Amino acid sequence: MKTILQAKDVNKTFGTKGNLYTALQHISLNIEEGEFVGIMGPSGAGKSTLLNIFSTIDTPTSGEIIIDGQNIVSMSEEKLSDFRRNKLGFIFQDYNLLDTLTVKENILLPLALSKVPSSEIERRVNEIADTFGIRAILEKYPYQISGGQKQRAAASRAIVANPSLILADEPTGALDSKSATSLLESLSMLNASNRSTIMMVTHDANAASYCKRVIFINDGELFRELHKEESTRKQFFQQIIEVLTSLGGGHHDAV
Ligand SMILES: Nc1ncnc2c1ncn2[C@@H]1O[C@H](COP(=O)(O)OP(=O)(O)O)[C@@H](O)[C@H]1O
Ligand SMILES: [Mg+2]
C-alpha cells in the first residue's frame, strides 16, 4: 500500500507572543492510497486549519507533512504552486467556479493548464461528467445551473486531472439533502472505481457515513477514529453519532 499523506506531530498556533492560541497539537496521521477519510469534530476543533495546512494554503508552526513523497513544509512558494496544481484537488463549500466560463471550460481548466492534448481533454471531461451526472449541462454557465449541479461541476474540476489527493471542506454544506446525496454517491463511486484518495471535512454525520474511515478531532487534538469495515452505511452513521455525542455539544445534524 502506498502512503499518500503522512503528518508527523503537526502543531499550529495562531496569534503573537502573550496572546497565543493553539489550534492544533500533536497531530500525527497517515492516509493511504484509495482511502476516503472524513474529518469530524465540534466547531472550532481545528478541522479547517488542518485541511488548510494539508492544502499548503497555510503552514504548520511545527511538524512534518509528506504528500506523495514530498515534504510540503519546506517547499518553496514556486514549487508549491506547481505541487498544488499537479497533486491536489480542492472542493470547497462555495464551489469557486469561474462565472465567465461554461461548466465544461471550468472542468477542463486544470488539464489545459497542464497542456494536456485536446482529444485527451475531451475524453476525460466527458468521462468525469458522466461520473457526476452533468453531461447535459456542460455548455451551460454557472448562473444557469443549481447549487447541486455547481458542486458536481466543482468536484469534476477537482478530480479531472487525477490528483494524488482530493481535499474537500464541507462540500455538502450548501446543498439540499438530495444534491448532497448525489455528490456523496459520486465521490464514493469514484473512490471505489478509481481508487481516488479523498479527505473530507464535514460536520454532518450523514456525509461522514459515506467515508471508509472517520477521524475525530477535539480542541485541536486527535480524539478517536472509526473504520467502517463491514458496517453498513446506516450502522456506521450510528457509530459516528455515538462518538459525536460523547464529544458533547450537539454539533451534528440529523439525517
Ligand atoms: N487565522 C486565524 N487566526 C486566529 N485564530 C484562528 C485562525 N484560524 C482559525 N483560528 C482558530 O483556530 C480554531 C480552529 O478553527 P477551525 O480550524 O476553523 O475550526 P473548525 O473548522 O473545526 O470549525 C478556532 O478557535 C479558530 O478561532
Ligand atoms: Mg471549518
Please explain how this structure is put together.
The protein has 255 residues and is of the alpha/beta class. It is 37% helix and 26% strand. The longest helix is centred in the C-terminal third of the chain and has 18 residues, at 177-194. The relative contact order is 0.18. The structure holds adenosine-5'-diphosphate (ADP) and magnesium ion.
Q: What is this structure, in a nutshell?
A:
With about 260 residues, this protein is of the alpha/beta class. Helix content is about 35%, strand content about 25%.
Salient structural properties:
about 260 residues; Rossmann fold; 8 helices; alpha/beta; about 25% strand; 4-stranded antiparallel sheet; 6-stranded mixed sheet; binds magnesium ion; 10 strands; disordered C terminus; binds adenosine-5'-diphosphate
